[in-house]
Amino acid sequence: MPYILPTSDGSVTLQSDIHHVSYHSINGAVTESMHVFIETGLRKKQQEQKNINILEMGLGTGLNAYLTFFHQKESEIFYTALETNPISWELAAQLNYPQQIENQLTSDIFSQIHTCEWEKDKQLSPHFSIKKHQKSLQDFETTEKFDLIYYDAFDPAAQPELWTEAIFEQLFSLTASNGILVTYCAKGSVRRAMQAAGYTTERLPGPPGKREMLRAVNSYQ
Q: What is the CATH architecture assignment of 3-217?
């Protein structure tokens, strides 16, 4: 079973017992998720449109979904999450994210993210719905297009099969025109795989402990 690790900003993360790497940065779990997924992903799309269809690859601790709910502002969020190895609510309940962002009013939302049924739409608020799929990206089939993709798979050393050109071709086919994909990973091989799949990429400053991250755009009309 994954076990809890402290991180530098006071929030915690989990260490995977399968891949032997942490789910989030030990330099700050909340800090990393805020920087990579909220600030360079969600906030950019919020400047462009109100209705935002989000796909998360790697629901994991639920932190990215929770932060997205907390920072939804006036947006209409439709959130789809993929996870092959979900953690138990008993373990998730020990994570200190509601306390870390000082919003006990939404602690019930964090619980619902983890306990709502798989493969069914769950309305968490009038402007935020989530649907979780317990399946791999390779097995995920949909006709939907996504405005924003949070790519939060374990790093290429742990899961090299999820950082290939073929994977990014699949993701590109799921990305709406002017849709973006954000990830903490900035490896040259990953950037080149994204470009070969059709994305326009940009390197951006990374969160604490990482020099850079990547944002990829489907710039085809």
A: 3-Layer(aba) Sandwich (3.40)
d(CA 82, CA 44): 22
State pTM to two decimals. Answer: 0.96
Tokens of 181: 């994909």
Domain layout of the chain by residue ranges: 3-217
Closest C-alpha among 107, 105, 54, 113 to residue 89: 113
Contact 202, 194 (CB under 8 A): no
Q: Phi/psi at 96 (nearest 5 deg)?
A: -100, 30
pLDDT tens profile 16-30: 988 889 999 999 999
